[in-house]
Amino acid sequence: MKFFIDTADVAEIRELAATGLVDGVTTNPSLIAKSGRKILDVIAEICDIVPGPISAEVGATDFDTMLAEGRKLAALRPNVAVKVPLTFPGLKTCKVLADEGVRVNVTLCFSANQAILAAKAGAAFVSPFVGRLDDIGQDGMELIGDIVSIFDNYPAFTTEVLAASIRHPMHVTEAARLGAHVATVPPSVLRQMVQHPLTDKGLATFLADWQKTGQAIL
Ligand code: E4P
Question: Is residue 96 part of a domain?
Fold first, then answer.
């Protein structure tokens, strides 16, 4: 499973990328707004930190403008993945960009049928939003499972299932169990994933016992 981090905070990206655990980054207009920076500047900077796919979302909703914006974003760096919304103009934009060799992440996916359309449009990634479905009382993970099993029926679909709107570590475990190709996680969730009280307790004991030996490895 690949891990993308879901943030436009360059300091966070730099710190987490240094762990070697980050395969890509996703941003969206809300995250760009939170960063307080210009999208072209921040996306270029992120692309230079993480070599994997960096999702940058268009700001328009009509085909012509989305296509022009997508081409501009894609021209920034080879590792940009253009993010478009799951609408007919978005899918049309996806098809044209994919035919031009640009990776596209079709976002705001909330149903299996929407995911099938994204795959048919040549998307590199489709992003089902797990947490936002949970928020309205639907099972976001059920959607991940449905999409993974549908895509498995059609080997010609090369679209990767990118579990998005991840809110806590259990979402990551479940997405991995179901076979999602990628999970995009907020930095806080990635940090939570490493934690376990028995790890801390065990380490404290080992350190205390190691001190008693009076040895040094270096
Ligand atoms: C990822 O591509 C999405 O933009 C993101 O995961 C949305 O998460 P949210 O529902 O927590 O805003």
Answer: yes
How far does Cα 13 stand from its chain's mean position? 13
Name all residues whose Cβ lies below 6 A of ligand 1. Answer: 6, 26, 28, 107, 127, 129, 131-132, 164-165, 184
Residue 218 within a domain: no
**Is ipTM over 0.90?**
yes
Number of domains present in the structure of the chain: 1
Write the CB contacts of 165 (distance below 8 Å, at least 6 apart in sequence). Answer: 129, 130, 131, 132, 133, 140
CATH number at residue 69: 3.20.20.70
Mean pLDDT of 114-121: 98
**What's the pTM?**
0.96
| Residue among 136, 184, 185 to mutate when testing ligand 1 (max atoms within 8 A of CB) | 184
* DSSP string for 37-90: S-HHHHHHHHHHH--S-EEEE-S--SHHHHHHHHHHHHHH-TTEEEEEESSHHH
Q: Considering only CA atoms, which residue is closest to atom 10 of ligand 1?
A: 165
Instruction: Report the candidate in 179, 83, 174, 63 with the shortest Cα–Cα distance to residue 127.
Output: 83
Range(s) of the domain holding residue 57: 2-213
Catalytic residues: 83
Atom of ligand 1 nearest to the CA of 107: 2
